[in-house]
Amino acid sequence: MKYPLIILFVLSMQALFSQETTLDEGYKKDVIEKLSVLMQDFYIYPDIAKKTSEHLNNQYKAGYFDTCKDNQRFAAILTEVVQSVNKDKHMRIMSNQPYIASKNTLEAKAEHRRGQINNYRSINHGFKELKMLEGNVAYLDLRMFAPMDRAKEIADAYMKLMSLADA
Question: What is the pLDDT of residues 6-20, one digit of tens each?
Answer without folding.
Answer: 444 445 434 334 444
